[in-house]
């Protein structure tokens, strides 16, 4: 199934008929995916850590009757874990592992904990992965628009012979087969995701900051620098995705822009460092550093959050949004 693209027409939701699906966790991904699945006719039970957690009330507000994670797991034929990744192992061994029904399906939305061995599912359940490649609110919005978010699916363990059908039905029920989902391994999904986050998100965000800071230090008005550093990227990324990078550079941008992109763009990217980050990710070093940071209570992240929030770029962005809205 690796590299195969799965589409709506070839997949049926029948495999979930008369089956109960437990959504464990009701946050950024859990809530929107659950709402899509309910609209697709899937029978859901929502499992949440305790009545005092914010998710509990959110689920009630959406018309669900949440239960404990252990109760939801014990009732379900498919258990879909949508908890934040770092607390997953402790919650899994406390409430999920011993309550899984034999021959049920255990689904993840990220392969991190299984790949690195923090969660070792029992041998008598299917183990699958489905990840829509976008933020939860976009998953929901696209579903409501009749479209979907491209996704990745994987089967790690198939004890019933229909684990692939189960995960495909899951993907279909949130709209991800309307636009296609690709088959990957748990390792590819996890390390690919971690690599993308470091190089692409990390790189682009710091490039935007460097553009803003350098222009402001060089005497440009902050609002102008902000528009250059962030706003100008918004539309061109969509166009490049729609028509291709080469078509965009050659025929949609100006010749000056084309010359700038082709000649000086590569000077900005340190390809050796991109490769180093890829290698570190494959060796599990990024995962180990992140788990250590989490276990210490995320001190570096808290410090960096404070510095980021107080930056001139953030203040300028807030003023921009107030004055110009989406413009
Ligand atoms: N965020 C994304 O865009 C995205 C994209 C693709 C895949 N994923 C994957 O989707 C999964 C869920 O991520 P998410 O971003 O949706 O997570 P999240 O919103 O940060 O948290 C999801 C749920 O985890 C619960 N939770 C957190 N700590 C807990 C604890 N100590 N005890 C009990 N419950 C706890 C939260 O409950 P409360 O709300 O009550 O605190 C919430 O219901 C992860 O595997 C992630 O890698 C996320």
UniProtKB/TrEMBL annotation:
Q: Which domain of life is it from?
A: Bacteria
Alphabetized, the UniProt keywords read: Amino-acid biosynthesis, Branched-chain amino acid biosynthesis, Isomerase, Magnesium, Metal-binding, Oxidoreductase
* Record domain KARI C-terminal knotted: where: 185-327
Which residues does the record give as Mg(2+) 2 binding sites? 193
- Give every KARI N-terminal Rossmann domain span: 1-184
Class of enzymatic activity (EC top level): oxidoreductase
- Record EC number: 1.1.1.86
**What cofactor(s) does the depicted protein rely on?**
Mg(2+)
Q: Name its pathway.
A: Amino-acid biosynthesis; L-isoleucine biosynthesis; L-isoleucine from 2-oxobutanoate: step 2/4; Amino-acid biosynthesis; L-valine biosynthesis; L-valine from pyruvate: step 2/4
Q: Which GO terms describe its molecular function?
A: isomerase activity; ketol-acid reductoisomerase activity; metal ion binding; NADP binding
| One BP annotation, GO | isoleucine biosynthetic process
Q: Provide the residue positions that the database annotates as binding Mg(2+) 1.
A: 193, 197
Please give the InterPro entries that the UniProt record associates with this protein.
Answer: 6-PGluconate_DH-like_C_sf, KARI, KARI_C, KARI_N, KARI_prok, NAD(P)-bd_dom_sf
What family does the entry list? Belongs to the ketol-acid reductoisomerase family.
Protein name as it appears in the record: Ketol-acid reductoisomerase
Q: Native species of this protein?
A: Rubripirellula obstinata
Q: What is the lineage of its organism?
A: Bacteria, Pseudomonadati, Planctomycetota, Planctomycetia, Pirellulales
